[in-house]
Design goal:
400 residues; 16 helices; globular; alpha/beta; Rossmann fold
Length: 400
């Protein structure tokens, strides 16, 4: 997600990218390898959105209709709530697909980037009590790609930011509410996968937020992360990429689930596989949770972004079959690799509803690699603590 930072005419290297979990900003992240019977979107040039400009292929959502047209479109969408929705999950687990499904359903404001509000922007501007600090935040954001390509100008949000903004959650809320007004819709959703580590902060600063955690089979998620090649969560990675990304998946999912449990009924989990293999039922249940009609036929017809043009990290495979993103791991791991993988992350696979493919005897023979687990886990925890609880978090990169 996070590498090169760009502002109007200014580009700098993110020398502290390890503080941002080492994830590069040269392409979209947290996306999915959905059924590849449809073509893939263009590769982005900047930011963690799906396109360099942020607007070129989100179509009607980010090129909103006029207000009368918007009223007509949104009248077709039944929503019993205006609460904001946060779509979270381990990168490469389907967050972008689910987010674009929400946009396709109608009455949600579209935003061209992952906002990184809590993961990066918040640590840069931890105190917003003074007007001076709020102005610094506003100036920084307006210079960033997030600001320049949001469709908002200084005059749209400056007065509210300077008057109301007490914390980073207020800032995101003000930006998104103004985007709702401009796009003629009633609610907003946000998708930054790594905000999975910020669930508690999200709920503290945006009390009416609903959190949706999409979970993908860790064996497929690790394959996609390894093939994607842009996510680098470790200071130093040893041994198998599949194992290291499997541990990363397990760490993120368990962190997110532990935080999510503290939210009670405002937290919801769904499986990526259900979204692909049984979308009507999965979307219907999700719609009940968020108080919004998620009509599958309408979503497929509108087809925002990856709903009609998936972002897969396996674009170079010859003639991939539709739906191959589910269970791809079955043909990609050797028996030995699978035994070691399931020995290390099998507990999390079982906790999240997935069956193991190896026997206890096979997994038992792989336990000698537990040192590998401890070595990589300690790095993830150290980065998280440095980023979240020390001033070094302010050095984290962002799109500028």
């Amino acid at each position: 997600m996070h590498g090169s930072l760009r502002s109007n005419g200014c580009e700098t290297s993110d020398s502290h990218s390890w503080l941002t979990m080492g994830i590069e900003m040269k392409g979209n992240t947290g996306t999915q390898d959905i059924a590849s019977s449809i073509s893939s979107p263009p590769e982005p040039s900047v930011g963690s959105s799906e396109t360099g400009s942020g607007f070129s292929w989100l179509g009607p959502i980010l090129n909103p209709p006029t207000m009368p047209e918007a009223d007509s479109v949104n009248a077709q969408t039944k929503s019993s709530s205006t609460r904001p929705v946060f779509v979270l999950g381990c990168p490469r687990s389907g967050t972008t697909l689910l987010y674009h499904m929400l946009l396709s359903s109608g009455d949600f404001a579209g935003y061209p980037f992952e906002s990184d509000t809590f993961r990066i922007l918040g640590p840069k501007f931890p105190g917003l009590r003074s007007v001076k600090k709020r102005k610094s935040l506003l100036d920084f954001w307006l210079r960033s790609s997030n600001g320049t390509e949001s469709g908002l100008g200084r005059s749209d949000i400056e007065s509210r930011v300077l008057r109301e903004c007490q914390n980073i959650g207020d800032f995101l809320r003000i930006v998104m509410e103004e985007m709702c007004r401009k796009q003629g819709v009633r609610r907003w959703a946000e998708k930054t996968p790594d905000h999975l580590l910020s669930i508690v902060e999200i709920k503290r600063f945006i009390p009416n937020a609903l959190v949706v955690h999409i979970i993908r089979d860790g064996r497929d998620a690790a394959l996609s992360l390894a093939n994607f090649g842009r996510i680098k969560p470790y200071f130093c990675k040893l041994g198998s990429e599949l194992l290291s990304f499997g541990l990363y998946w397990k760490w993120l999912v368990q962190k997110g689930r532990a935080a999510g449990r503290t939210l009670g009924r405002d937290y919801y989990e769904l499986h990526y596989e259900g979204l692909i293999e049984n979308p009507r039922k999965t979307l219907s249940h999700l719609g009940e949770f968020i108080g919004h009609e998620l009509d599958y036929d309408r979503i497929a017809q509108v087809g925002v972004g990856s709903v009609s043009r998936p972002n897969t990290s396996f674009q170079n495979l010859p003639s991939p079959r539709a739906g191959s993103a589910v269970g791809r791991w079955r043909g990609q791991y050797s028996p030995e690799e699978l035994a070691v993988f399931e020995a290390l992350v099998g507990d999390c696979l079982i906790e999240t509803g997935y069956s193991l493919a190896t026997s206890p005897q096979q997994r038992g023979s792989a336990l000698s690699v537990l040192g590998f687990w401890a070595f990589h886990l300690s790095q993830l925890e150290l980065k998280y603590q440095l980023k979240s609880h020390t001033p070094l978090g302010r050095l984290a990169g962002w799109r500028r």
